Amino acid sequence: MSDKSSSQALKDFVSETEEIIESLNLDMVRLADSVDSGDCDPDVLNGIFRGAHSIKGLSGMFGFDDLSTLSHSMESLLDGLRLGKIPFNQSLVDTLFAALDVLIKLIDGKNNDENFTLDLTPVLTRLSQAAEGGGEARGRGCRAAGCARQ
User: Fold this and answer.
1) DSSP string across the chain
2) Structure pTM?
3) In this structure, what CATH number is given to the domain that contains residue 46?
């Protein structure tokens, strides 16, 4: 691939992922708004899952293993929530927002230098702990169909 076509492909990747991030951010705010009631909307949760899944796939196509790994970890956490294995609480939402922030930083960095990366250890550890049902506060599960119940 020529430098010009490689550059255009990277621009297309960034453009596509930025659209997904915008949608993810809106859905994450909706999810956060439902923490107190525990009534998470399964469509919102599924939308967040699909966004993480899409970023994982796009990242894999471009060889961005860091983005792929992070989005896969988000996807695993969201799947656990969807299946009722993980409690729905503020700590979980905060963890997802932290992961989203790192995704945004990685995508922005790759827009300037495709070799850009960050130390993902802290956020991956946090996602892993949340996926195991850990976190600062145990919460009740979602009360909507398709979301976690506790």
Assistant:
1) --HHHHHHHHHHHHHHHHHHHHHHHHHHHHHHHTTTTT---HHHHHHHHHHHHHHHHHHHHHT-HHHHHHHHHHHHHHHHHHTT-S---HHHHHHHHHHHHHHHHHHHHHHH-TT-----HHHHHHHHHHHTT-SSS--PPP-STTS---
2) 0.86
3) 1.20.120.160
